[in-house]
Amino acid sequence: MKIPISIKINGREYNVEVKSNELLLNVLREKFGLLGAKYGCGIGECGACTVLLNGRAILSCLTLAVSVNGQEITTIEGLSDGSKLHPLQESFIEEGAIQCGFCTPGMILSAKALIDEKPEPTNNEIKEAIRGNVCRCTGYVNIITAIKAGAKKIKRSEK
Amino acid sequence: MNDTKYIGIEFNYYRPESLKAVLEKLKEDGSKILAGGTDLLVRIKTDMEKPKNIVEITGVKELSVLETNNELIIGAVVKLFEIEKNDTIRKMYPSLYEAVKSIGGKQIRNMATLTGNLCNASPGADSAPPLIVLGANVEIKTLNEKSEIARRLIPLEDFFTGPGKTILGAKEILTKVIVPKPQENTGSAFKKIARVNLDISKISCAVFLERKERVIKEIRIAVGAAAATPVRAYQTEKALTGKEYDLTKIQKNLALIESDISPITDVRSTAEYRKEVAPILLKDTLKLAWERAGGEVLI
Ligand SMILES: Cc1cc2nc3c(=O)[nH]c(=O)nc-3n(C[C@@H](O)[C@@H](O)[C@H](O)COP(=O)(O)OP(=O)(O)OC[C@H]3O[C@@H](n4cnc5c(N)ncnc54)[C@H](O)[C@@H]3O)c2cc1C
Ligand code: FES
Ligand code: FES
């Protein structure tokens, strides 16, 4: 069964046809070439496929593409302003919060959703927000530091 | 290993905007309700479910009700994050808040519904024990022979019939969960033991009690992941009712919980561990509920 849907991805409106059993993750990667969201486990455990749906972090490996008809998706590709990185992307680099980078898009999007809601998150709030994002190489200390630093940068840039 | 990258089967997809249209679709064989998908899509990917029709219910407005004025009413498409964010629920139904907050990571709670957690009927579904002790009822709807919407109301406690099994027929939908307003001098709490916090429970416990001065006037206890369904601990409840709240004196009553449950050994834990830890978990949960009922804080 093919179904026409309209979705806004990173600020742009698209009309596409998807199959009823297609996952949002695969549509983003294969139809739109947006390779930031990763396939890790496919069953909700790792968070590598995290994207924002209307500003909230969700798992694109457990979301049918048809289900997001008429809604708004943000992927990691939507964060930078041309070649200017988003403050969270900068702080992840500066704080050494990336090694292989596989978890990073999901981590940063979870962090962005948190900071949009709570501009000055505590350590516990950060841990809570990235509880569903697994990192196998960096360890979480640098990631938490990077999220705090990113939140500060965002505040400063808004002043 | 299953390939969890793609969905291997084909199905039709519908997203009706009225309850009636949902119920009409459910009359077709092989139809399956989709809410947040955090259980259903995993089950489809791992070949445990092969629906012909997926009927997504998130488009039905009346199912998004969330009311806290008198009794608490939670519609079928209300997501866990909405419950977590609701101040009235956090204050008046802390056991439910604690259970919801303990489910999965943020992404899961942004997607999953409370009703889906109940309908999936895992013996360890974290939302079940608190809702059972709070005395929740569930509203179930279906179409009768005349194609009219028929409604029944069932105590949640009678809803579960086995692992993954409920009294729901294939043509029925759970439309809302209704929880009575707790009275004065009552308190409730939920605790679970899991490998890490976001994990599925090895065992969980919810307590609701009414305090009269220093006495446990009434108590309801429910345990998750310790039997084929979430269960009430009737013997323990009976032994604790009317007792003075003195943890050393009621120690042996708390131990009765071992005979109220019938745990198995599975990937998450052993039957022995579950039995061993149950009285301790109960004690911690009871303490919290007692304090919330205005009882003296004991260390
Ligand atoms: C990584 C991960 C971690 C998790 N951690 C926990 C945890 O710690 N504790 C816990 O309890 N659970 C946990 N879960 C499971 C939890 O996410 C689900 O039980 C969730 O609440 C189900 O809701 P849903 O909206 O996603 O349901 P769906 O997957 O959409 O539906 C679940 C089932 O219920 C049926 N259904 C849904 N709504 C209705 C309705 N209104 N009427 C009739 N049938 C209906 C569907 O047909 C399906 O069979 C976890 C899941 C994942 C993937
Ligand atoms: S790929 Fe989606 S959670 Fe792992
Ligand atoms: S940087 Fe490799 S998984 Fe996190």
Please give a structural write-up.
The complex is a heterodimer of chains A (159) and B (299). With 159 residues, chain A is α+β, with helices and mostly antiparallel strands. Chain A has two domains: 77 residues, Beta-grasp domain (Ubiquitin-like (UB roll), Roll), CATH 3.10.20; 71 residues, DNA polymerase, domain 1, CATH 1.10.150. Chain A contains five helices and five strands; from the N terminus they run E-E-H-E-E-E-H-H-H-H. A five-stranded mixed beta sheet of chain A has the order 2-1-5-3-4, covered by helices on one side. In chain A, strand 3 and strand 4 form a beta hairpin. In chain A, helix 2 packs across helix 5. Chain A is globular and about 45 Å long. The mean pLDDT of chain A is 97. With 299 residues, chain B is α+β, with helices and mostly antiparallel strands. Chain B has three domains: 45 residues, Uridine Diphospho-n-acetylenolpyruvylglucosamine Reductase, domain 2 (2-Layer Sandwich); 120 residues, Uridine Diphospho-n-acetylenolpyruvylglucosamine Reductase, domain 3 (2-Layer Sandwich); 107 residues, Enolase-like, domain 1. Chain B is 30% helix and 24% strand. Chain B has twelve helices and 14 strands. In chain B, strands 4-5-10-6-7 form a five-stranded antiparallel beta sheet. Chain B has a four-stranded antiparallel beta sheet with strand order 11-12-13-14. In chain B, strand 13 and strand 14 form a beta hairpin. Chain B is globular and about 60 Å long. Chain B starts with 11 loop residues before the first strand and ends in a 7-residue tail after the last helix. At the A-B interface, strand 4 of A face helix 2 and helix 6 of B. The structure holds flavin-adenine dinucleotide (FAD) and FE2/S2 (inorganic) cluster (FES) (2 copies). Flavin-adenine dinucleotide binds next to strand 2, helix 2, helix 6, helix 7 and strand 10 of chain B.
